[in-house]
Amino acid sequence: MSSSTAPHAPGREVRPVTTTPPTPSAVDTVAFADPPTLGRRQVLTADDPTPSFGARLRGAGVRVLRASAAIVLFLVIWEVAPRVGLVDQVFLPPLSAVLESFWGLLVSGELGKHVGTSLTRAGTGFTIAVLLAIPLGIAIGWWAGVAQFLGPFLELFRNTAALALLPVFILILGIGETSKITLVVYACFFPILLNTIAGVRTVDPLLVKSARSLGLPPVRLFQKVVLPAAVPTIFTGIRMAGTSSILVLIAAEMVGAKAGLGYLITYAQFNFQITNMYAGIIAISLVGVSINAVLVSLERHFSRWRTT
Amino acid sequence: MSGAGTVEAVAPAPAPSDTVPGTVPRLRLEHVRKEFIVRDATAGRGARKRFTAVEDFTLDVRAGEFLTVVGPSGCGKSTLLDLLGGLTEPTSGRILLDGEPVTGPGLDRGVVFQQYALLPWRSARANVEFGLEAKGVARAARARVADEYLDLVGLTAFADRYPHELSGGMKQRVAIARSLAFDPEVLLMDEPFAALDAQTRESLQDELLRIWRATGKTIVFITHGIEESVYLGQRVAVMTPRPGRLQTVIDVDLAGAADPGSDDGEHDDVRSSARFGRYRHEVWSALHSPKEDAHV
């Protein structure tokens, strides 16, 4: 760990720091009399010198080990416990047997078919919810009249669990795709709506005032100030909706469906294909984690300016 | 090169600050009065009463003048600035800009707020471009003008930085560049340096004077600092509160006050010259009379 400020040191900042040559304009040198952030940054890098490649690799290794230890331990117990007879092998087969079934389902294309079906349903419902909830949330957040009119109504439905309405959706919309997608729309709608309302309402009033002082008409003010300011909050809602879309869909598919991950699990259970059932559950976890990862990175992309 | 030269190429040549007497003032306030309806806690629930923030305010601001408005907090300074900015309308009286009544916000006035009001998702350059977008300047010209004004405030190297990557003083420079870039007639500044530390404030005061001389803008600068008002203003308008009214206007001439060998002594620090001290005291006395109780 050399503490020398290597000129070629791979910077941790996103942009190259252009401090070393003082600005050529002589008049403007006074401009830097106030303590600029750059000075502090240099101090920071001096305290925290860029570690060598080996040290960084070691650091990353330790991090990965620590982060995955609990999962690895869980998987080991899953493998060992049935084998030594701690639990009944019939009801909880060892992990290796489950992975074997998982592989079989994957190769036969059956797993892909079910995942595809579920993702299509979830994606459709999610998209419809985004398209409905964001404009409505903006309207409620911006116009007090709309909020007064729709507030109590939405509050009533927000507190009605999505799954409680599943029988209603099935009765009215039948057992096909429509009722399942509707359920997903319903479950995704509220997180997006509530976060959009919050995002629009919490825009810094000073930014609005400053934009108004430029004589910006309301539409432009909305487009240039209110909406960009609300985007990070809206994306938090979108991420929450993405998670719940899969959760409620699986439940709906367990009640009545001919394909989908929920169907795969119940079908396997009815036919006593216990390893397939666990394979389906693992597939759900993986799908959920991937969706969340995509949405988190999207959220981060849109809230970069929110740092500090 | 210094920014001043390049900026003059974009902005129209600044009018000489000592305009011909008898011409229309840049800004004119005629018996301006502003009332608010506020909750009256003493008179029980739901009670309302009138509160006068600004009372019978009459003042002319010459083109190219640097006018400071000083007063204690709550004396209606910010209300006055909102009125000038067109963000709120006077209850009675008139505000004229170049002889035309002010009816709302507009790009003929630029406002600089104490808390910078920069858009946090835009880089310094894009923030300066914001006012130009409102003005309808073409994209290519926007970037060019923004860079010229960032140069004027000494932030060329920071054009691509986001507000959270800048210090308070730098943020305020960006805000000043933004308000100058769309070339308003008048710059309205609402305690712009109040949130900064003393050293940064002093360097920004000198910067502002330099920018004012380079651009020839008319500046109305609101502050609660007596020294700041004397240091910056050609004239200091003193306001007293409840209701906020104009107490007096004091002409300030500090030219040569800091010259070595002048009657004030040898220092090159204007603020410690005897003349500065006299003006400071004059403003202080105006603030403390006749309603002593209001500022204790």
From TrEMBL, chain A:
Any GO BP annotation: transmembrane transport
ABC transmembrane type-1 domain ranges (all copies): 115-299
Membrane-spanning intervals of the chain: 60-78, 90-111, 123-144, 156-176, 183-201, 221-238, 245-265, 277-298
Membrane topology: Multi-pass membrane protein
Keywords: Cell membrane, Membrane, Transmembrane, Transmembrane helix, Transport
Superkingdom as given in the UniProt entry: Bacteria
Region annotated Disordered, chain positions: 1-25
Protein's cellular compartments: Cell membrane
Chief location of this protein within or outside the cell: membrane
Pfam families: BPD_transp_1
Family stated for the protein in its record: Belongs to the binding-protein-dependent transport system permease family.
Protein name according to UniProt: ABC transporter permease
Species name: Oerskovia douganii
